[in-house]
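*** Backbone structure tokens ***
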Amino acid sequence: MPQTSSAPQVPVILVATDFSETADSALDWAAELARQQGARLELVHAVAIPPSLPWYPPPTGVDFSEELRKAAESRLEEMRTMLAGKGVEVSTFLDAGTPWQVIVQRADSLAARVIVIGTRGLTGLRHLLLGSTTQRVVHGARCPVLTVHPADAGGHRPIRAILVPTDFSQDAELAVTTAHHLLSYLEQDARLILLHAYNLPIEYTAYGPIPTSVSYLEDAGLEAERRLFEMAEALKRDGLTVETVARQGDPAHVIAEEAQSRGADLITMGTHGHSGLRHLFLGSTAERVVEQAPCPVMTIRQPEE
């Protein structure tokens, strides 16, 4: 009997939505990414049943959970129809439960390529860096997570230039690999920007200027340039320009400034570097980059051993 080969599976990009403005912006960026990579979208919403109010008992015969589900189904269908009209293949998924758990579990079951989510939702507070749902999704997801800021609304575009900060750790290597793969769908005009920001250790700065600090910075800069050059040579291909930058300064500020000045469409970075602790949500640099970045940020978490 002749064997038949199965068609390659279409990659899935999962988009979490709570129907907020930031979630709508995340959807716009996800749709651009799906078109660029030939992926399909899945819209995911979790119905979280609010607790009943003791001073406002629900009317007899009213099932609020069912009413919420019907309302959410209607909103999801409106979004699906709108995206389908723009030529994007899209499905929807609705479940009751804690939002971050529903999102992460669904991404696992689909082997999603990436989760796209807004940094703040309907319950987000302006003074918080990330909403609690987004924090938990980034911490628990097995796949990359693309976080979209409220300020990114209306700025969605094809991703052609990706900046990758690196401290030459394993997490940073994984981020470089992910960015290189994202750009592999472009035959030309793709740019990968490798950036290393270095600064004096606290042992130097705590005592003020000392003579050895000058040679330390010079040596650190030269070594970073050498390693960046080696990385770039291994990544070059036709249609892809690989730029390298080694700069002294606070890493989070340097990353945000270089992303702005070089017109990066996306920043891709590991959640922990050499100094990162696994029990933290994000390494301090990654967390501050998400806050300060002029574009969406994709974080990649090294799988737990």
